[in-house]
Specification:
rod-shaped, 11 strands, five-stranded parallel sheet, alpha/beta, 4 domains, four-stranded antiparallel sheet
């Protein structure tokens, strides 16, 4: 099965289901958008203690970091507490009402909070911005706050040891100066020199630690600082509604549902669409296709019936049939008017057939072309191989496959000679009566 056949079966045959569902989906989406309460949004701009980004990728990374912090339910709960608001809906606010976006390739991010109350939106946005900065500083400068006290503690301990050694060295110097024994003086000087060497080692260690402390302080002083650039202000207008996007999405949802319903219907009761497909299913030649067979519409297309009459005459003469019966696939269709116009249509190279429409019903002899056309039901005795008669099936261009196969089985069981097929298009107003009612109710505006 080709894609165009699938498209004709689904969209062509079930547009009466698909179109209303699309319109219904759009109307529902538009109604929900118009009736829903639109919130207020308060926005604040802030910078984190990160270096200036050199590319848009780095800027997006900074914005993602801020978003990850701001959308934490625990942080939102603390921000609500700071704003003196209830934290019962902290999870919902963090998930659906907090957004963080980067501003271009800069390191500035915009934090927005939406709420039905404008004052609440402003308070939450400002409190949450402060919490984001506090959390970021606690994370980025936490190591500094731990390392600096440790360095100070080690430097103080070394200074105490060095001071103790200085006292011992001074004491040994005094003892060496007042002693009268040269051997004792040399022993004291040896101990002093050992203590001096140890003191120099400790002084070197203290110098290295002091250098590390200075470097740590310098790096922290050069680090960018986090701050709020622009605090949130009181929003005066509600957020604009996304009615166009929601309407389009509603229409797409209706389209999906409509296509799904049409596909289910076609899977259960497939439709044969197209004149060639109907003829191929019945294994019979296609004689012609008419724009309509309904009363009042055949006469307007009478000029198109001459070629069709010629093909009917050729088929009847080839089958040796003096009478061609028109069998309607749709029993609700009356073929008398079509048969009348076909019978009265001239044949190329000959004269017109019977011009009296009542002659078809009264059983008068056939026209001068030797072939008569009249509608017959399948249970008519003339279509069962008698009187040299044969039938032509008149079917819509789209018909349920089960109905078409059942019709073919009836013809084979009744030994009916099927000469060919004539198809016609069914207007949408006849397929879906509600469409005609809607069309009739729409006022027609004419220019003066």
């Amino acid at each position: 099965m080709q894609l165009n056949d699938i498209g004709r079966r689904i969209f062509g045959e079930h547009s009466g289901i698909i179109v209303p569902l699309v319109v219904l989906g759009m109307l529902i989406a538009l109604l929900l958008q118009l009736t829903s309460a639109r919130p207020y949004t308060a926005s604040t701009r802030l910078v984190l203690d990160t270096p200036d980004p050199k590319s848009r990728t780095e800027a997006m990374s900074i914005a993602d970091t801020a978003k990850a912090i701001a959308t934490s339910p625990a942080l939102v709960r603390r921000a609500l507490k700071d704003a003196k608001l209830s934290g019962a809906h902290a999870v919902d606010i963090a998930k659906n009402h907090v957004s963080v976006t980067g501003l271009g390739a800069s390191g500035v991010v915009q934090l927005s909070v939406s709420d039905g109350n404008a004052a609440h939106a402003k308070a939450i946005a400002n409190a949450l911005a402060g919490r984001v900065i506090e959390t970021r500083l606690a994370f980025s400068r936490g190591q500094f706050q731990i390392v600096l006290p440790q360095l100070d503690e080690r430097i103080t301990a070394l200074s105490d040891q060095i001071a103790d050694l200085d006292g011992q060295i001074d004491s040994l110097n005094v003892q060496a100066a007042v002693t009268g024994s040269a051997q004792a003086a040399n022993s004291l000087r040896a101990r002093r020199d050992a203590l001096g060497t140890r003191r120099d080692s400790l002084a070197q260690q203290r110098g290295e630690l002091q250098s590390e402390r200075v470097s740590l302080l310098s790096a922290n002083a050069l680090r960018p600082s986090s701050s709020v650039i622009s605090p949130a202000t009181f929003p005066t207008h509600r957020d604009p509604g996304h009615w166009l996007i929601d309407t389009i999405l509603g229409g797409l949802l209706g389209l999906i549902l409509g296509i799904g319903a049409a596909a289910v219907i076609e899977a259960i009761r497939p439709t044969v669409v197209g004149s060639e497909s109907v003829a191929e299913t019945l294994d019979t030649p296609l004689i012609g296709e008419l724009p309509s067979v309904y009363p009042g519409e055949v006469a307007s297309a009478r000029e198109d019936l001459t070629p069709l009459k010629a093909r009917l005459v050729v088929a009847g003469e080839a089958a040796g049939s003096r009478l061609i019966g028109l069998v309607a696939a749709d029993r609700s269709v009356d073929l008398w008017q079509l048969a009348t116009h076909l019978d009265a249509s001239p044949v190329p190279g000959g004269s017109a057939g019977m011009t009296d429409p009542d002659g078809l019903r009264s059983g008068q002899p056939e026209g001068r072309n030797g072939v008569r056309v009249r509608p017959v039901p399948l249970d008519d005795s003339h279509v069962k191989g008698r009187d040299g008669s044969a039938v032509v099936l008149v079917s819509p261009t789209s018909i349920k496959r089960t109905e078409l196969l059942a019709l073919g089985n009836v013809m084979r069981l009744s030994s009916t000679r099927l000469l060919g097929l004539i198809t016609y298009k069914v207007p949408h107003t006849r397929r879906w009566p509600w469409l005609a009612a809607v069309r009739d109710r729409v006022p027609v505006i004419t220019p003066d």
